[in-house]
Request: fold
Amino acid sequence: MPTHYPGSPEQIKALNAYIRLTRAVESLSARLLSAEKLEGLTTSQLGVLDALHYLGPMAQKDLAGKILKSTGNLSLVIDNLEKRGLVRRERGQRDRRFVTIHLTETGRSLIERVMPRHVADITALMSALTPEEQQTLGELSKKLGLSLKPLD
Reply:
């Protein structure tokens, strides 16, 4: 359903594009991000495990940047992953304030089990678009994302 806001043509076009984008993301998320499919992981937890699996251990600040979360929000995410034995924090030898997040073997096993199914589901859902349309969507999404200033 398009906007009913009585704005200028420019405003209506922007609002309608935003509404369509938001609905598409929410629809995809509802199908992809069920706790059952992700074995109880939240979207942020999945992002952390994925980043650590493919990029290796990293500082919490760097990890926050990779998954686009504030460091404060990420602390809670990491706390919960740590409680499940999926990650561990390691304090720096020289500077105890410096904390590196590591994936545990349990975490590695979980991400290696969940990620292929998740990727297969994404691939199936995105097949509603041609490969060229997927490429264009990716490019437009990147352009929009890069035009926005970071929140922090």
Summary: The radius of gyration is 19 Å. The mean pLDDT is 90.
